[in-house]
Design goal:
Distance between the termini: 63 Å
Helix content: 55-70%
Strand content: under 5%
Number of helices: 6
Order of helices and strands: HHHHHH
Shape: elongated
Radius of gyration: 21 Å
Length: 114
């Protein structure tokens, strides 16, 4: 048995040290919080894109019932849906391209026609 420490072993040791420091309140670890969007924000996003609930759901691969529940405040989008809604808000065509690439089986987003 060797006593030499490998690079990966050292990384694991450092990471565990960070965890122990965090749990002990000695260190804060970076994180990103994606807050749940308010229902009226989701409605405004959909309306800004000039889409019905059904067309919004179809275009972005969402369940129309879920969109309805979010807009009426009866449900809150889960973390993945919140991230997707954020991307839709900032660059809806990137989502459309990604989903189109998935449908064609290329795995690559197609450039929009010029």
């Amino acid at each position: 048995m060797t006593t030499d420490r490998t690079g990966i072993g050292q990384e694991i040791e450092e990471a565990l040290g960070e965890v122990v420091a965090h749990v002990g309140g000695e260190a804060a670890l970076p994180c990103r919080v994606v807050d749940a969007p308010p229902a009226d924000w989701i409605v405004a996003l959909r309306k800004r894109l000039k889409l019905s609930r059904q067309k919004f759901a179809d275009r972005f691969g969402l369940d129309v019932r879920a969109v309805q529940e979010w807009e009426q405040g009866r449900r809150v989008p889960d973390r993945a849906a919140r991230v997707l809604l954020t991307v839709i808000d900032r660059d809806p065509e990137s989502v459309v391209r990604a989903l189109a690439a998935e449908e064609t089986g290329t795995g690559e987003a197609q450039a929009p026609p010029s």
